[in-house]
Design goal:
Bound molecules: pyridoxal-5'-phosphate
Radius of gyration: 22 Å
Helix content: 25-40%
Shape: globular
CATH architecture of the largest domain: 3-Layer(aba) Sandwich
Largest sheet: 7 strands, mixed
Order of helices and strands: HHEEEHHEHEHEHEHEEEHHHEEHEEHH
Distance between the termini: 26 Å
């Protein structure tokens, strides 16, 4: 397999774009250093064509979770093309944003008002600003990953790797004002006592409690209710980050399945199938505080994002897309489990079915095993990693082809474990875990 053009282009990028790309999760080093095709010329359905004309089936994170319907969905793209033809920008506002706000409030009956942004981390910053504006307080308690902004990375100013264990290890707070120290305090998912400790120390100073309702593990019974009660008791705004969890298990935020409502829910990439769009949805008394603070941006008013989001949500709803995502996710989990059992490999599987992740349980050599998996799957025509994010474009036939390849590759890996030769089979370095500065 020749992926030279993309590999060479990425070397050029490293000289002119600090960090090579603008998203950690798209760095080739995260998948397969020095071998990953890195760039695409075309993406359609589940197929991705690289710069050398190789066509891969994407069985990995599918646009980092941004394309729930699959790449270049015809219905969403038709809505976007119409928005382009009718002018994506004007001195006047686009009516689609009002329709979208109404649709989001209809789908989340606890909510009354919506603000829009375009990126997930950006929308989370808007939500935090609204919470601080509403409460007049500075400090926030959080768990999980919520983007790159100052309010979040401030957690690491306190030292002790506060953000380690919150999805992305190794985030340096370089460039974050030291005066933000102790303004973001972590707690641990499914550990009510860790939230209690934060609430005990900072309760009356908390502007917000921020979390994903679900990520890699389901909430234990009563955990979300406990978080809700803690927010009520302390007067903090409860913010559910649904940037990744939303729209996959049901139509809307995954919190709808748990009958615990936040004060604000934030939606982004999953909402608009590959076009920038983000929404901050909330209850009126909190959202009205957006008027006390200045938040305003030109491209928050363009038309493509709302048009894409409306088309995406309508299609997810009319085609019952979450059911399909769950089915494909369950199918892939079965493939991993059966292939691992067939070859005596120890693996763990976690995540909700549409966002499934497996890992080899072999201690130190696990990361080399993951890298070998990606390398061997690439040779067989699949973009693959430990994670599989299901899309509406994944069909059973794709998973059946994937299954054949996984069985072969798991056998190769099992044999290599037996012979202690994983390292020798790798044609480049092992994939990176988390964030680090590139040479
Ligand atoms: C839960 C969560 N919040 C926030 C973000 C940041 O979104 P974006 O990359 O669009 O800024 C992500 C991205 O992966 C996410 O998963």
């Amino acid at each position: 397999m020749n992926c030279r053009t993309g590999i060479d282009l990425y070397k050029r990028a490293g000289n002119i774009i600090p960090g090579g790309t603008h998203l950690l999760s798209k760095r080739p080093e995260i998948f397969l250093p020095e071998q990953w095709p890195a760039y695409y010329s075309r993406s359609k359905g589940v197929e991705v064509t690289d710069l050398d004309g190789n066509v891969f089936i994407d069985m990995s994170i599918c646009g980092v979770g941004a394309c729930i319907l699959g790449y270049a969905d015809p219905d969403v793209d038709a809505a976007v093309k119409a928005a382009v033809d009718n002018g994506s920008m004007s001195t006047l506002n686009c009516p689609e944003e009002v329709e979208l706000a109404e649709l989001l409030c209809e789908l989340h009956p606890w909510s009354d008002m919506v603000r829009f942004a375009r990126g997930g981390g950006e929308a989370m910053s808007v939500a935090v600003r609204i919470a601080r504006s509403a409460t007049g307080r500075d400090r926030v308690a959080f768990c999980g990953y919520h983007g790159w902004h100052d309010w979040y990375l401030a957690a690491n100013l306190a030292g002790g790797g506060n953000l380690d264990g919150q999805l992305l290890p190794g985030l340096d707070p370089a460039g974050i004002p030291r005066s933000l120290r102790a303004t973001a305090v972590p707690f641990n998912y499914n550990q009510p006592e860790s939230l209690e400790a934060v609430a005990g120390e900072h309760g009356r100073e908390l502007a917000a409690i921020i979390m994903e309702p679900v990520r890699h593990t389901e909430p234990e019974k009563g955990f979300l209710r406990h978080v809700r009660e803690t927010a009520d008791r302390t007067g903090a705004v409860l913010i559910f980050d649904e940037v990744t969890s939303g729209w996959r298990m049901n139509i809307g935020g995954i919190h709808l399945s748990y009958a615990v409502t936040p004060d604000i829910a934030v939606f982004a990439k999953g909402i608009s199938n590959g076009y920038p769009m983000a929404a901050i949805t909330g209850i009126r008394p909190v959202m009205e505080s957006a008027q006390k603070t200045f938040m305003s941006s030109t491209y928050w008013t363009e038309r493509i994002g709302p048009a894409a989001a409306l088309a995406t949500i309508k299609k997810m709803r009319s085609h019952n897309v979450p059911e399909h995502l769950k089915r494909m996710g369950d199918f892939v989990r079965k493939v991993w489990r059966q292939a691992a059992d067939a070859h005596g490999l120890r693996i763990s599987i976690r995540g909700i079915p549409p966002l499934s992740i497996f890992s080899f349980d072999y201690g130190e050599i696990s990361q080399e095993m993951h890298t070998l998996f990606t390398q061997e799957m690439l040779n067989r025509g699949f973009l693959s990693s430990k994670a599989f994010y299901a899309t509406y474009a994944h069909m059973e036939e794709h998973v059946c082809d994937y299954e054949r390849a996984v069985r072969e590759v798991f056998k190769t890996i099992a044999d290599a474990v037996e012979k202690d030769s994983i390292h020798e089979l790798l044609r480049g370095p092992a994939a990176h875990t988390g964030f680090k500065r590139l040479a």
